[in-house]
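Holo prediction. Input below; ligand is fe (ii) ion.
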Amino acid sequence: MRQVTKFVIPEIIFGIGSLNQVGDSLVRLGARRVFLATDPGVAAAGWVEKALPYLDEAGLEWVLWQNVSENPKDHEVQDGAAAYLDEGCDAILCVGGGSPMDAAKGVGLVATNGGHVLDYAGIDKITRPLPPMVMVPSTAGTGADVSQFAVITDTKAHAKQMLASKSLVPDISVTDPLLLTTKSRELTAYSGMDALTHAIEAYVSVAANPLTDVHALSAIELISQNLRPSVASRENMTAKVNMAMASLKAGICLSNAALGATHAITHQLGGLLDLPHGQANAAVLPQVMEFNLISDPARFAAIARAMGEGGESLSVRDSAVLAVRAVRNLASDIGIPAVVTGLEAVRQETLDHMVANSLRDLCLITNPRDMAAGDLEQLFRSVLAVALTGDEDPT
Ligand SMILES: [Fe+2]
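Structure of the complex:
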């Protein structure tokens, strides 16, 4: 039983066309020269071009930075912080997905606290305030625009490191569902499953509380009703608005109730194998749910009901099992395979390395069922089933 509940969120601006709020938001935070972080895909889709006039109208100077890759790397953050300081920036705006947002947080952190971004890996290592930060998510999945976390790849250890601090919560989150209309079908599917993973892991987390539960169940329901139509059509604005809201709610939950074993595992798949985060989550989540089921069957039964499965006539246990089936069906319907694909083979020593890193991952702390090295290895093996059958071209 938790003795203390803490709940923190940024100011939230949500709605179609709300990108036009970025200039005023930054002015309110005292910005003069803005470090505008994005990624080449978002810039190519025209969203940076659309945001810039709002900065100009507000009398702000800006410096564009887009040297960040998927699964953002420690050296990219260090380079970004050097650019921030060289250019004399005093605030951060990020228009992009989870990778540029996490990188932008790292840039703000290193620019104000000094040293190396991974010096701050762990919980509450940050001691000086960060610059004002405004975040505009371009995907419905990340949650980084509201969360107190940043995940950065340690390129020497080939592992993702997690930074957790309330100093990493952005000041203002601006969610404009129009940004979702330029995403590919694949990315829409991946990020939607990431949002679902956030909501489900937060709902069964040992740190779940009444303030997060209400948003978690609502996010699960919205995703189960809107992810399929959102993947089916770029033009379906009802689905886009609902997915944007679901992602926001799931982000609030993950920030305040934290996550679980799915993320402890997929952080390794991202850090070592550079797999897309949402794709890896979609493969791992149902297996972890099956493992976690006995920790609190009633909570899994509630997840099933939020996904339209189960009913009064079923036992709690039978309903709980349906939650796993509902997640598998959703991933399958939107074209995400149940095992990680695209790898030739994974060596045993690579597997051992990933298991060891998972055991150290902060997300494992809030998983509702205790997990040992053997449990993790079994989960990695079943998720990487195809890859582990071969022994050529080992990764
Ligand atoms: Fe995630």
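DSSP finds 15 helices and nine strands in the chain. That is the main takeaway for now.
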